[in-house]
Amino acid sequence: MKQVVRNYTFNATTRVITLTDYATLSLDRLALVVNTTTNRILWNLADPTVATATVATNTITLSALPGGDTNTDKLAIFYDAQQSDGTAFSDGQMPTSSAFLSVPFSTTTVQAVATTDAGLYSWVSVHLSSSGTSSSAAFQTSNDNVNWTTAPLLQSTSTNGIAVTNATSAFMFHGPLPGRYFRLNVTGISAGTTSGVVTFFANPHTLPTAGVTAAQTGTWTVQPGNTQNTTPWLTARAAVAYGGHSYTNITTNTTTIVRGASATLRAVTVNTRGTGTSAVAIWDNASTATGTKVATIDATNNSGTFEFDAACNNGIVVVTTGTTPPDVTVTWK
Hints:
Layout: E1 2-5, E2 8-11, E3 16-19, E4 30-35, E5 40-44, E6 53-56, E7 59-62, E8 75-80, E9 100-107, E10 111-117, E11 123-130, E12 136-142, E13 149-150, E14 154-155, E15 166-167, E16 171-176, E17 181-187, E18 194-201, E19 246-250, E20 254-259, E21 263-272, E22 279-284, E23 292-298, E24 304-312, E25 316-321, E26 327-332
Antiparallel strand pairs: 1-8, 2-3, 3-7, 4-5, 4-8, 6-7, 9-18, 10-17, 11-16, 11-18, 12-13, 12-15, 12-17, 14-16, 19-26, 20-25, 21-24, 21-26, 22-23, 22-25
């Protein structure tokens, strides 16, 4: 099926186009290459006068370019992809259960490799065939191809069910894809080569089940109460201490630093209303009533609890005013 290739690199100086989703290419399946930045045709299967081309593995080398082309130009590449290629699918096209995408990688320097838009795949397998000196390849995922986070994977021979976030030696790892994009971020390499292949699968695979061995030791006594066969079943519930919120009570006209660092404002309770123009103003600040105001409560006409659950990144400062100040309790954590 002819489709527009989404993942590629273009070197205008060497006239080389690399299709990163493919391991090998066939020139007779390359239909058209258009530079959409300059609106010029770079290759046309039906018109050999535009340029000739050769292919090697997943690269296309053109005999000439029209001129004015740069590495950052956008290309529209039309290629007749086959399911056996294990290639990425175009937008709106769903992969079959046997579909896969293999992305080889190799590096001798610190860099991210095998960066792939794998949005239509659900499983990834990383086969690290060699690991350079002091090399660490971190498994990373992203939904915007800009901000990356770890993507824990399981060793293929793991029996304890513990996932890892990076590889420092040649091995195979696999697991579900939590985001649209995937890459290996290679750091620390000082010599040698870190290489291998990342393969994406349309259907999820099965993770191994971790077994737990348990054994009883010592003497076990089953009894109805605290002392064997002499007291009734224990039904009283023991007291349990639960973690709660901190609170600050304010009864004067003042500026109160409730919390001088990041905190969560849980609620403000007006226990007793003030008189005159009475108010409670809450600020997201560590020391002064400036910056971002969280809220102002009319303490002349309102009482009761006002819930916020608001994240105050800098701190919590409360200003209480009135002819007669209100009685206020600030709950925070």
